[in-house]
Amino acid sequence: MEHRRPYGDLLGRSRTEEGWDRRLTTDVEEALAGQDRRVRNVVEAVVSRSVAVGSEGVALMGSTARGRRTPISDIDFLVVGSRPGLDDLPMEIDIRALHRDEVLRRVRSGDEYLQWALRFGCIVHDTGVLRQAAQAVLRTGSWPDAERKRGHAQTLLGLATRILGSGDREAAEESVRACLTALVHWILLANQVFPLSRDELSDQILELGSFDLAAALHRSIHSEPDLDELETMLRLVRHAIELTPGRAGRAALPNAA
Does residue 236 share a domain with residue 150? Predict the structure, then answer.
């Protein structure tokens, strides 16, 4: 049976020490429940090694934290402190290691990655810095900058266009998927919806009424689109980026390439 976390935004649990302690206990259970043995072993190894090198916080991120792994999923972690050794571990692992001062500075500025960790990640180790960061988000009400994601999508569009022109289908698929992901992040954030894991983005953008974007992103994850299909996806991205956000900061939603 597919493992799904039963709750959404968890920032509120940082309001009290008891609530945060409950989150730590629950998140550790959620991080491991329903995962296959290889994933469980990697999560346990990364956490124990991070603690051993003095890391102040560890959060399991992305599709693994949300119980929505796909064939293209890595195992993603945020580590506050030193990066542990990973060379002997058997799976693809992506660790972003940040100093505590950088975490607190960036989270106050609305950094999407760090807010994702606090809102939806599995906090599997914390000496207090991640709770402090979560409280800062609650206190300031900061929200990620949607226009930054729009700019990122524009950059990725140029890169994907060049790679597609090379005829390398696998590289083009990866670059188009990244471009679509950034675009959907932009539209969701501009509509005050916090993006979840990559495999959930199609459902989120569909709820806002964009069938074409939802279908394109889903296919880029779960299928192997050919070069013509990838070009169609890029036309959809170009069309979306050219649209001007409407009133109240609500991004326009394309439904035609």
Answer: yes
Whether residue 72 sits in one domain with residue 193: no
pLDDT reported for residue 236: 94
Give exposure, 202-221, as e/b (b: 16+ Cβ within 10 Å). Answer: bebbbebebebbbebbbbbb
| CATH number for the domain harbouring residue 179 | 1.20.120
Range of the structural domain that residue 243 is part of: 146-249
**Per residue in 43-87, pLDDT tens?**
999 999 999 999 999 999 999 988 888 888 899 999 999 999 988
Q: Does one domain contain both 117 and 135?
A: yes
The sheet with strand 57-61 has its strands ordered as: 93-98, 75-80, 57-61, 122-126
Q: How many residues does the chain have?
A: 257
- In-domain check, residue 59: yes
Nearest to 164 by CA among 178, 175, 156, 153: 175
- Which phi and psi angles does 77 have, rounded to 5°? -135, 145
Residues with pLDDT less than 70, the chain: 1-8, 244-257
